Amino acid sequence: MKSLTPLIVDAGIPVASYYVLSDGFGLSTVAALGWSSVVPALRTVWDLVKNRSLNGLALVILIVNVVGLAVSTMAGDARLMLAKDSAVSSTVGIAVLISVRMKRPLMTAGLKPWVTKGSAAGNAAWDRLMAGSEPFRRAERRFSAIWGSALLTECVLKVVGAYTVPVHTMVWLGTVLTVVAILVAMFVAGGTSADPMEKMVKAEIERAAEATTLAATGVVAPTAGVAAADN
How many CB atoms lie within 10 A of CB 54? Predict the structure, then answer.
């Protein structure tokens, strides 16, 4: 739960609050987006003041909401409103791909708890592999790259559909495209990145336990765990 807290606070709360404010309390799109931006805005400012660093995920959610606000204030054209969600998806997708390029992949916030199962041994194994295993780091970046690419592709398809498909059809088709993009990203990223990383973490935990046992009996382990993980 401690590992999941940043993802819940930075992404879950803003998204949930938007739907609660818009659907539950009847606020306009602009007002709901504005109020749902409060948490990521405060998180971003807090990290800047306290830690002198930017909270990447909080900043992305804040940017997404600002983009949504800007688009929402335009003329109330039905097709434009359909394309608005694509602007949001594209902002997230581009931000994720940029984070991969900078070797600080944003999707790691959700990936790490899944791979380590939130255990102390799993988190320790993750840290060792991140420090000493290039295949592990490549898999981490690949996971975010797949998600960023999926979101960007979804954006392009929804923009094209917003201006070529009848509005009443695109209302439900847009949701279908989003669901398909998420499922594809989960399947591909899981099979090519998350699953191999989970196996590497499990193997590293076993190696660390074996090394601890050997050390307790006075026997020196023949090889280091992370070094073996690269083979």
Answer: 11
**Span 25-58, pLDDT tens digits:** 887 655 665 676 676 667 666 766 676 655 555 5
Cβ-proximal residues to 133 (8 Å cutoff; 6+ apart), any chain: 200, 226, 229, 230
Per-residue confidence at 228, pLDDT binned at 50, 70, 90? very low
CB atoms within 10 A of CB 17: 18
Structure tokens at 66: 């600002």
What pLDDT, on the 0 to 100 scale, is given for residue 14? 67
Residues in the chain: 231
User: What is the Cα–Cα distance from 81 to 163, expressed in whole angstroms?
Assistant: 11
**What six digits make up the tokens of 191?**
């099979």
CA distance 147 to 107: 8
CA–CA dist 83, 77 (Å, integer): 10
- Model's pTM, two decimal places? 0.68
Query: Are the CB atoms for 68 and 80 separated by under 8 Å?
Result: no
CB crowding 97-127: b at 16 or more within 10 Å, else e: bebbeeeebbbbbbbbbebbeeeebbbebbe
The encoded tokens of residue 74 equal: 């335009």
Could you give the CA distance from residue 58 to residue 175 in angstroms, rounded to a whole number? 24
C-alpha 98/C-alpha 57 separation (Å) is: 12
How far is CA 10 from each of CA 148, 161, 165, 201, rounded to the nearest angstrom?
A: 18, 30, 34, 26
